[in-house]
Each structure stands twice: as structure tokens, then as C-alpha cells.
Amino acid sequence: MKTEAAAVPSLPARGEGQAFPVAVICLVILVVWYIAAIPMNWVVTESKIAAAGGGAADILYYSWNEQRPVIPAPHQIMMELWNAVFMVKPWAVKSLLYHGWVTLSSTLLGFVLGSLFGIALAIAIVHSTFLSKSLMPWIVASQTIPILAIAPMVIVVLGSLGFTGLLPKSLISMYLCFFPVTIGMVKGLTSPDPMQLDLMRTYNASASDVLWKLRFPSSVPFLFTSLKVAVAIALTGAIVGELPTGAVAGIGARLLQGSYYGQTVQIWAALFMGSFLAAGLVWLVGVAERIVLKRMGARP
Amino acid sequence: MKRFQATDLIYPALFGISVLVLWQLIVKGFSVPAVLLPAPSDIWAKLITSLPILWVDFVQTVIRAVIPGWIIGSLSGFLVAILCDRIPFLRRGLLPLGNLVAALPIVGVAPILVMWFGFDWPSKAAMVVVMTFFPMLVNAVAGLQASGHLERDLMQSYGASWWQTLVKLRLPAAMPFIFNALKINSTLAMIGAIVAEFFGTPIVGMGFRISTEVGRLGLDMVWAEIAVAALTGSTFYGLLVALERVVTFWHPSYRR
Q: What is the ipTM of this complex?
């Protein structure tokens, strides 16, 4: 949020300024985390603390530096992240950059495919009453199916058909992220008011003219709002797509390996990496939104 | 209420039936192997014969994990939203973080929760709680701001207390947002519980069944589980939509 405000200095700060409250809340979370680590790690650290003498310094040291903690201290996660990102070559198996890239590439492919499909579907729905009546309920129903749960089957079936690697994971991302785009775009494409549509009629504009010159421009704000949601769930889809297939690379694979071998710190580091990716992607869509809206002449 | 036309029901039904028929014809016509895609008739046969297993899985996943988790997660998100509303400092600090967290791949927490709460249903319910908390928080905070200044001024001029304003004006105005979050959460809850089962479960549950049957290439059983999951999800969603119509009957989208 801070970076967003910094990127566009012309925008006035929203509300009464968020930086200070956010910082305070983050600090509170950190403090609670460190304190909670002591009782939560007690199961694993108790004997070591007793052996070292049991003083207050020992308690703090062992609670916050345990190799296989129940909950690692934040600085342990940061150290692990630092080591896995900057201390190894980017293409090494231990590098989180490498795993992040694997996940990111299928996320992006799925996101692009899903968004295009979602937009195409929305355009079809807006132009056909039959489609809007017959398809819309099924589009909504399709999202009540826990697709993430059948991801393993999709991947195994596609794998037996000869599709491996990037595409099956991307298809899961695509299935997840077309939905918000379709819903948002149907809303956006129908957002021009009747007066404007009537004006286009008096100009004798064709359906494609109306689409490109009126409907599409007025749907852009809706599009970007949906894209932000879509890119975040595309990433979730890619991560979950890596879980069931015994994938060797990707954030999901790191999570799974960590949980098999009880490497708590590794799980948390992978989780943070995924979160940074998500935040970065949403931020990028936000930047694109601002650039596009500015070029279209929107005023903040 | 919006007028309900017969075509609202007939068109989607026609579409669904034609997809099923097409599916059946393609699978049988081209004799697609059952390990790739079983025909709807095969899935139905499997569904009927394995009802006891499906029921046990349903109880483990939906009754024990999804529903309690969904209730606890949504309720706590709602309560924190009210707290945020009472304390503006908390709102300004927590809301950007909540927005951020709502975009994060929270399913990744599943392995950690399985480690903390064990293999059985408590870890799945905890997963559902974590997944449903933030959408409710963000939506409820937005909803509590949705009442207009004019209405709030009116309440002020009546000398209404904060609680009275909350109960009589702002909560009703927030209902569309809250139902939106509940609907999002109904899907997320199913996903959360099933994904958490990938990271370790007792030998029962929908996620467990799906992942083991995929391994044994028993795809008709997988599709039977999917059918149950889809039916559960749609019923859940449909009930919420019906409840929303009753609670927010005043909303423009339901007016005739």
C-alpha cells in the first residue's frame, strides 16, 4: 500500500493516512509472534532448555533458534529466504527464485489464457440472450465445484494424454481465473447507459463498433478489478496444481517436500515467497491499470 | 421480487442435458478408455453402488470440517470487522493488511496447520477458518461503510446510540456485502478442506478419496466424488442465495 501511494505522488493519501496504523499493526503481529513462539515451541525445546540450565536467556535462545520448530521465529524465515534467494545460484534446485519462476510461468500462462477466455465468454454472453440465460447459471455452478480438489485428476489425465509440465498446471489456473473476468466483464460491457447505446444507434453503428468504441472502453475499470482477483487465484491454482503430482519444482512442490520431511522453516519460506509473488502480481496489474486509465484520460 | 420466467430454468436445463448427452455419446461412440474419461452412465452406476463410502467421506469433509470452519471463520471475520468499525485506528491498520492477505495463496498454510492440529478433521476445520476469515473481514468492513451520510445523519438527529445505528441502519445496509462474502466463503471452504486433506488425513474424506482413486486410476469413483462435491457446493450456494433474497428484499437488484 505504501509503495502504491509512492508510485503516484499526485494521488492524495486515502483516508487519514494508512502507513502509521499499518506499521503499528505489523509491529504488534511481530511481537505476538515472537512471544507465541515460546510456548508453541515448548514441546521441542523443553529438554534442550532444561539441559542448558533453564535461564531466561536459554529459553529465548532455544525458542527462537530451533532447527525444527513448531513455529519458526520471523528472523529464521527471513534468514532462510535470504539464503534460498541470494546465497545460491538462481538455477539451483535449492533456490527459491528457481521454484518461484516455475510457478510464476504457469501462473502467467494460465492467467493470460483465462483472461482471454473470460473476456471472449463475456462478449458472447452480452450479445446473445440465449447464451446469457443458458450459460450464466452454469458458469456460476462451475465455480461451486472445488476445482482445486480435482486438480490431481486433471493433471494425471492430461499427463496420460501426453501433456506434461507447464500446460496442465496452467489449465487449472485458467479454469480458476476465467470466472471473475467473465463476471466482471459482463457487468462492464453492460455498464454503458441506454442513452449512450441509443446515441450509437442513431449513428447507425454496427454491433462491433458499439463493442469497440463504447462497451469495451467503459468496461476497462471493471476489467482491471477482475484481473487483480484473477491473477491472485491463478497463482493459487498453479501452486495447488503442483501439489498432487509429485512435482519436483515450484512453490507447491517446496511446500509438499517441507511437509514430508518436517522442514517447517522451508515451508514458511516457500509460503512467504508465494505471498511476495502474489503481492507483486497484484501490484503490477494495479500499475497497468493506472497507466491505461491515465492514457484513456481518466482523472484520479 | 424479480419476476421468475420459465425460460430461466428451461434454457440452462436444456444446455446441461445436451452437454451430458454429448459427453455420453462421445465417450461411448469413440470408445474413450474409462481411465481417461468415464461416461456419465458409468459415473451414475458407481455413485449408486458406493453411497455408503460417499456418505462417510461427506460427513468427514463437509459436516466435520467445512461447516464448522465456515461458521467460525465467517463469524470471527464479522466480529473483527465490527471491532474495526468501532476503532478507526484498527481499521486503517488492519484493512490494507486484510486486503493483501485476501490476495495471498492461503492454501499454502495447509501443511503448517496439518502439523499443528494433526491429521484428523480439526486441521481441516482450521484451514477453512483461515481461508474464510479475510474475505468476510474485508467485505464486512466495506459493508459497514455502505450506509449513506444522509441516513446516518438522520439516525444522529434521532439521538440514536452507536449500537442502535449499527443494528437498525448499518448492519442491514451491510447485508449485501456480507452475503457476498458468505457466498465466496462457501466455495473457499470446500476448497480449503479438500486441499488440506492432500497433506495428510485419516483414511477417509473427499480429498483423500480423490487423491487415492486417481492413483488407482479409479476415475469413475473420482467423478462420483466430484458430483457429490458439486451438488454440495451448489446446494450451499443456492441456500445462501435464497436466504439473501429474504434478508435483503429491499435491495434494487430484487425489486420488480
A: 0.73
